[in-house]
Amino acid sequence: MARRAVPRSEAVKLTRYKHACHAMFHAPNEDKLFGRIPVRHTVLMQMRFDGRLGFPGGFVNLEEGLEAGLNRELEEEMGLDVRLCGITEGDWAVTEVHDEQNFVSHFYIKKVTPEQIRQIETAATTAKDHGLESLGLVRVPVYTLPRDKVGGLPAFLSNTFIGTAREELLMGLEQEGILSHSEIHKALKASGATRH
Question: Per the record, what is one GO cellular component (predicted)?
Answer without folding.
Answer: nucleolus
